[in-house]
Design a protein that fits this description.
The chain is mostly beta strands. The chain is built from no helices and 17 strands. It has strands at 2-22, 25-50, 53-66, 71-76, 79-85, 96-105, 128-139, 142-153, 161-162, 166-172, 176-186, 191-202, 206-211, 216-220, 224-238, 241-250, 258-266. The strands form two sheets. The protein has a twelve-stranded antiparallel β-barrel with strand order 1-2-3-5-6-7-8-11-12-15-16-17. The protein has a four-stranded antiparallel sheet with strand order 9-10-13-14, with no helix packed on it. Strand 16 and strand 17 (258-266) form a beta hairpin. The protein starts with a strand and ends in an 11-residue tail after the last strand.
Length: 277
């Protein structure tokens, strides 16, 4: 079993345009910078059920800040559990395969229930699943890797969120697909560098709303694509401990502008049962 700690910071920057229109004429246009900061501290516990089967649980603690309206939100994020299975034993020189499946639980503050004028959400608001496969191959001193997965978010029903002129009652998120690829290069026994790209595609989402006149209608968002480039430095700080420091940036409008992170294992000392002489 193992316990890992991850600390991540993401920054979203944008420009908000406020227009004052009188008789179809723009009287004033004010451009205001908007910045969103998210700090996530997560603990991940892994336990090996078999030599090739591992289960893990992740608990994130989230803090969010938004500068324009001076909003904040902090608390527990969405808990998740993962199962990883390696069907074939590792053979030097061959491709290694690991299949995985993840379940997400809406334990964080839902964006569909929080008062948007007072605080920010810390979770996704609904249950979700994700499954796929990751592969890697050692080409000493380089390791190349990649993954492919598909995700699905279950509909969120029973809502009653005031959106200023209408009431949001249901959210049906579309399926998604993601992939990643990259490589890691060992500079020495104590230092390594890696570079990776992660892309994802989300199908359109439907929102069921009730207007003031009592009529129910459905609106949809367009499909979305995001891409992130990430670089990491691995440092061996002790014979059994490797710390990873990563920095990344978004390549699409919906991706974070800046990503910073650090991860390190937390040693769990096992206790052997006493044996009589």
């Amino acid at each position: 079993m193992s316990l890992n700690y991850n600390s991540d910071y993401t920054y979203y920057g944008d420009q908000q345009i406020d227009l004052v229109i009188v008789d179809s004429v723009v009287q004033n246009a004010n451009v205001t910078p908007v910045a969103s900061h998210t700090f996530t501290n997560a603990f991940t516990f892994d336990y090996g059920l078999l030599n090739n089967l591992t289960v893990s649980a992740r608990m994130p603690l989230v803090a969010k800040f938004e500068t324009q309206q001076e909003l904040k939100g902090y608390g527990l994020g969405d808990l998740s559990g993962t199962v990883r299975w390696q069907p074939f034993s590792y053979v030097p020189g061959r491709l290694s395969q690991t299949y995985f499946a993840t379940a997400r639980f809406p334990t964080g503050e839902s964006p569909y229930k929080v008062d948007e004028s007072e605080s920010l959400p810390t979770g996704s608001g609904g249950y979700g699943t994700n499954a796929g496969v990751s592969v890697s191959k050692v080409l000493d001193p380089v390791v190349v890797f990649g993954s492919l997965s598909a995700g699905y978010s279950f509909p969120v029903t029973g809502l009653s969120q005031d959106k200023g002129g209408y009431e949001l009652t249901e959210v049906r998120s579309g399926p998604s697909a993601s992939f990643s690829m990259g490589f890691a290069y060992s500079l020495s026994y104590d230092v390594s560098l890696s570079a990776s790209f992660q892309g994802s595609y989300s199908y359109k989402s439907d929102f069921v709303i009730i207007r003031n006149d009592g009529q129910e209608t459905t609106t949809s968002t367009g499909s979305q694509m995001s891409g992130i480039m990430n670089f990491a430095l691995g440092l061996r700080v002790s014979p059994k401990t490797i710390t990873n420091i990563n920095v990344g940036f978004g390549m699409t409008e919906l991706s974070p502008d800046i990503i910073l992170g650090i991860s390190l294992p937390i040693n769990i000392e096992g206790r052997n049962s006493s044996q009589g002489s």
